[in-house]
Amino acid sequence: MTNDETIAVRRRSDQSRRSPRRRDAREGNGSFSAWEIRALRPIAWRINHGKELSPPWRSSSAPFANAALRIGGSDGLCREAHRRSRRARRPAGKQEMVDVQHDELRLEGPGAAGKIQPAMVRRDRSAISVVSGRAQSILLCSQFLDEGRGGICEVARLTMQALCGRHDVSALACMEKADFRIGATPVRGFRGSRARFVFDLAMQARRATHIFYDFAGTARARQFVRLPARPYAVWAHGWEVWGEPRRDYEEAIARADIVLVNSVYTMERAYRTLDRSKSVRLCRLATTSDERPGFVGPSEGRPTVLLLGRMDNLLAKGHDILISIWPKVAAAVPGARLVFAGGGEAAERVRALARASRAARSIEIIDFVPADKIDELWRSATIFAMPGFAEGFGLVYIEAMRRGLPVIASREDAGQEINIDGETGFNISRDSPSEIADALIELLRDPDLAQQFGMAGYARWRDHFRFAHFERRFEEATADFLAAS
């Protein structure tokens, strides 16, 4: 390449760095554009065929040079790619495992939905999926991994926690703004740059034995690069797989070696999507801790109904319903208050609804709760209420049970599977807001009933939803998957 050609290529690189289109890609807005796909595929081809990635001014292929510059934006990334591409693959060894029987639910093959039966799973209790005396090398891919980033992020953190004790785990988080560590596990952030995320996925996948994706939206990154043949698992949470999901989500689910589903409700409602899957495993979630909180039970202070959850544009957690019925509750229980915490894109809309309420003075809205204030917020609550319609599991329900609070859930999502109606709280249809109001009034007026439901909820958490329970369920659901290499 001549000096003039080199200057021209670098000039085009500078222009691409200033391009609004490229800036949108860095910030994670929208899907991959056509130019990103064209840029990624040549790089992926060279990575997967063991080719070295030369800096663009030394490359004999002008299209490849342009693609590298478009993704990296500088010759520094090309040098990084050149360095990484020379690393040798980690060799895979001989599998060692034994058979044991367990009662984990699973769903196998097309047309098997609804036929959930106990199954045999290959598992070694002493050392799951040992390869030549070493743990597997796991790559966890997610959108977020930092604490407090929502339910899907929390499931990714649970997955990491369950894997780290037995395997070598590394993680990629597309939307995180910086690199960090969770314990000893390195997490690489990409500031919303899908191009960089997919590029690094192509690099890291060569060294991994297995890949886990936090949900189908992250797993669809596979369509943009030709990855080495590695078994991969993906979580199905709820809304994204119910009904008729996006086609690229369906493809990511269909091609997964196993799909981990968080509840029977989601498994049944996502029947059409999961029907094409190779293997579907039920793996109910849990809290990240086994420890009992310092205070368990409804607050003895001011009667308080708490909803801790994101205020999304659909108001899917029931903020609007609680505001609409609150004047009736406030009139029946003097001094009662309604507290929303969690922030979100619809926070201003929720504030407007609260200001318009006749009981506006007893409604409090908190955008963000620091980690050191969460315990105080839970201790101030008498009831946890979230009459939503989009929960595929509802981790916040089991956290409320861990705190010993009675729960109000709806009959329109998986909350009814977690909360036992008449035992740990009430499950009431969203179409009957008056009944929801009556249930809140009953519990706020009767501390003994609230305490009874709260303690039953705590017992349910203790017996079924501690992290140790999730770890065992996850281990059994993924044993044969992790044994394959």
Explained architecture:
- This protein is of the alpha/beta class.
- It has three domains: 3-84, no CATH class; 95-289 and 469-483, Rossmann fold (3-Layer(aba) Sandwich); 304-465, 3-Layer(aba) Sandwich (Rossmann fold), CATH 3.40.50.
- It is built from 19 helices and 18 strands.
- The chain has helices spanning 3-18, 20-26, 34-48, 62-72, 75-84, 151-164, 194-205, 216-219, 247-255, 264-269, 271-274, 319-332, 347-355, 374-379, 395-402, 415-418, 433-445, 447-464, 467-483, and strands at residues 95-96, 99-108, 117-122, 130-131, 137-142, 168-173, 180-182, 185-189, 210-213, 232-236, 258-261, 279-282, 304-308, 337-341, 363-366, 383-386, 407-409, 425-427.
- α16 (415-418) links the parallel β17 and β18.
- α6 (151-164) packs across α19 and α15 crosses α18.
